[in-house]
Write a structure and sequence with these properties.
This protein has about 140 residues and is an alpha+beta fold. It folds into two domains: about 1-30; about 45-140, Immunoglobulin-like (Sandwich), CATH 2.60.40. About 30% of the residues lie in helices and about 35% in strands. It has three helices and seven strands. It starts with a helix and ends with a strand. Keywords: Membrane, Transmembrane, Transmembrane helix. This is FixH protein.
Length: about 140
């Protein structure tokens, strides 16, 4: 083989590599943002920050324990709000669950239908006229 043949084979191999990458790119899933309305959430981040800080000021962080069938959450005061279970790997699995504490200031949320693995738990609640928000990574068995 002379040097001209080697150059043609090298360019052909490189072009084939680029074509394979282009086909893979077009056949892959579209890039997914964690939040579709990230711009609006960015504008209102001060409110989110204030809610997170309120949890720290009032020492109101809920105690979260994971049981095989349910998620057990204990609050420091009576609360009403929503729990969002966010799965970063698949947005279709995200869940929003409204809750209200019982007389023992506890909430039991069923885990049926939630896959094993890492989830982000986002709790937003109101208690005694104050708004709170906390985020925590949890591992479901």
């Amino acid at each position: 083989m002379n040097w001209g043949t080697k150059i043609v084979l090298g360019l052909g191999t490189f072009m084939s590599f680029i074509i394979v990458l282009a086909v893979m790119m077009f056949n892959s899933k579209t890039d997914a943002l964690v939040e579709q309305d990230y711009y609006e959430k960015g504008i209102h981040y001060d409110e989110t920050f204030d809610r997170k800080e309120q949890v720290l000021k009032d020492h109101a962080a809920p105690l979260i324990s994971i049981k095989p069938e349910f998620l057990h959450i204990t609050f420091s005061k009576p609360a009403k709000g929503t729990i969002r279970m966010v799965r970063n790997s698949d947005k279709k699995q995200d869940r929003v669950m409204p809750f209200k504490t019982d007389t023992a200031m506890q909430v039991n949320l069923p885990l049926g239908g939630l896959k094993k693995g890492t989830w982000k738990l986002i709790a937003e609640w109101d208690s005694a006229g104050k708004a709170y928000l906390t985020e925590q990574e949890i591992q479901l068995p």
